[in-house]
Design brief:
Elements (H helix, E strand, L loop, with lengths): L8 E6 L4 H9 L4 E7 L3 H11 L2 E3 L2 H5 L5 E4 L6 H10 L3 E4 L7 H14 L3 E3 L7 H11 L6 E9 L23 H4 L7 H11 L3 E8 L13 E8 L4 E7 L8 E8 L2 E5 L7 E6 L9 E4 L19 H14 L8 H19 L5 E2 L6 H9 L1
Parallel strand pairs: 1-2, 1-4, 2-3, 4-5, 5-6, 7-10
Antiparallel strand pairs: 7-11, 8-9, 8-15, 9-10, 11-12, 12-13, 13-14
C-alpha cells in the first residue's frame, strides 16, 4: 500500500450519477478533498468535476493511478468487484457500495486483493447508519430485547424505471437495452435489511435457502418478481428476508422485525422511517405494542449531514470511513463483514435455482480468525 501524504485525505469518487452525493459529503469535511472523479460518460465526468472542483477521468485505471488516497466506488453493482480489485492493486483505500460482489468467485478475488494490498475496505451499507436502525441497535445492546433468536426483513421497491433505457455508466446500462437491474436476482440485493439485522445480532449466516416467484410482471426480460431467503446463523438464529424490485407496491419500503427473549420490536410497515413498535418485558404491566417516534435523520446532526441524501446516514458512514484511515483503525463494516452481508443473498439465489436446497455460506476470513469467531 502506498504511503499516504500528510494533510487532507485525497478522495476519488467513481460513478458520478449517485456518486455526486458522496462527493458532496466528502467535500463538506475539513479533513478531506475530492481530488478526482470518474465516469465513462465524458459529459457526466466533466459536470461532476466542475461541481466538486476535481479532476475528471473517464478511464477507471488511470483514475486509480492518480494522486488520491482513497476511492468511493459508487458504480453499477456488477462492476463493484472489478473496481475494488483495481483500486486495491493500486494501494487505494476503498469505500464500496452495495452489494459487495455478484458471485462467490468475485468475493474471493476481492478479499485476496484487499488482504494482499493492506488497504482499508469499508462496506457502504448506509442502512446501518439510519437513525432509527441505530435506535433499534442501541436498544438491543442495552439488553432490552434479551437474546435475539428470529428476525425478518423486507425490501420492496418498484425499480422498473431503472431497468430499461437507462445509461448509468461503468458498464451498468446502455441506452435501448435492459440494465443490470432487469436480470438482478432480488435476494442478491438483501444487504439493506440483512446487514442491520446481522449487525444487531452480532452474528453471521452459515446456510441459506431460497425460493422465487418466477417472472410475471416483466417476462420479456425474465425478471424475477420476488425472492425470499431463509438463513441460519452461527448462533442458531433464523432470519427471513424478502426482496422485490418489479412489483406493484407503493411507496417503496423497508421492514425489519426482531424477536428476543425479552420482547419484540419492528418498524412500522406504513410509516417505517418515523415509528417503531415494541413490546418489552422490562416495562411493567405493558399491555401491547408501544410506539416509539424515530427518524431517518440524527437529531443533532449538522446541516451538511443531509448533503448525501438518505437522511443523515451517509454523512456518518463517510465519517467512519475517513476516521478509520486517518486513525489507522478497523473499518466500521470491514471486508469480511461486507461479505457476511452480501454472500447469503448469492447463496439463497443458488438455493432457489436448486429447488430450495440449503447452500453453505462461506466465511472468507483467514482460518485463524474464522476459528476464533466460531469459539465466541
Amino acid at each position: 500500500m502506498a504511503k499516504r501524504k500528510a494533510g487532507k485525505l485525497r478522495v476519488g469518487v467513481a460513478g458520478m450519477r449517485r456518486g455526486i452525493s458522496f462527493g458532496k459529503t466528502f467535500q463538506s469535511r475539513k479533513d478531506c478533498v475530492v481530488a478526482a472523479v470518474c465516469d465513462p460518460i465524458p459529459g457526466r465526468a466533466e459536470s461532476a468535476a466542475k461541481t466538486l472542483d476535481a479532476k475528471p477521468y473517464t478511464d477507471y485505471e488511470a483514475f486509480c493511478k492518480s494522486d488520491i488516497d482513497a476511492v468511493a466506488i459508487v458504480t453499477p453493482a456488477p462492476t463493484h468487484a472489478e473496481c475494488c480489485v483495481i483500486a486495491a492493486d493500486n494501494g487505494k483505500h476503498i469505500l464500496c457500495e452495495v452489494p459487495a460482489v455478484f458471485t462467490l468467485d468475485e468475493a474471493r478475488q476481492v478479499v485476496r486483493a484487499v488482504e494482499k494490498s493492506g488497504v482499508k475496505y469499508m462496506f457502504a451499507e448506509n442502512m446501518c447508519y439510519f437513525a432509527f436502525i441505530q435506535t433499534m441497535h442501541q436498544m438491543v445492546k442495552d439488553g432490552r430485547l434479551g437474546d435475539l433468536f428470529y428476525a425478518e426483513g423486507e425490501y420492496i421497491h418498484d425499480c422498473r424505471a431503472l431497468m430499461e433505457h437507462h445509461p448509468d455508466g461503468m458498464g451498468g446500462g446502455v441506452k435501448g437495452k435492459p440494465t443490470w437491474r432487469a436480470s438482478l436476482p432480488p435476494i442478491q440485493y438483501c444487504t439493506h435489511d440483512l446487514g442491520p439485522i446481522l449487525m444487531m445480532m452480532e452474528d453471521r449466516v452459515v446456510s441459506a435457502s431460497g425460493l422465487d416467484s418466477g417472472s410475471h410482471v416483466m417476462p420479456k426480460y425474465n425478471t424475477i418478481d420476488m425472492e425470499v431467503g431463509i438463513f441460519k446463523t452461527a448462533k442458531g438464529a433464523v432470519i427471513k428476508i424478502l426482496c422485490g424490485f418489479s412489483v406493484e407496491r407503493h411507496p417503496a419500503f423497508h421492514f425489519i422485525s426482531l424477536y428476543g427473549t425479552g420482547g419484540s420490536m419492528e418498524t412500522d410497515r406504513y410509516n417505517p422511517s418515523s415509528n417503531l413498535k415494541a413490546y418489552l418485558l422490562d416495562i411493567p404491566h405493558i399491555q401491547g405494542m408501544m410506539n416509539i417516534p424515530v427518524s431517518v435523520s440524527h437529531r443533532d446532526a449538522p446541516p451538511e449531514a443531509k448533503l448525501g441524501g438518505h437522511g443523515t446516514s451517509e454523512y456518518f458512514m463517510v465519517g467512519d470511513f475517513v476516521r478509520c484511515i486517518l486513525d489507522d483503525t478497523k473499518p466500521a463494516i470491514d471486508i469480511y463483514e461486507g461479505m457476511d452481508y452480501t454472500l447469503p443473498g448469492i447463496c439463497a439465489h443458488l438455493s432457489a435455482q436448486q429447488g430450495g436446497e440449503a447452500v453453505k455460506v462461506p466465511d472468507l476470513r483467514p482460518k485463524k480468525k474464522a476459528k476464533a469467531r466460531k469459539r465466541q
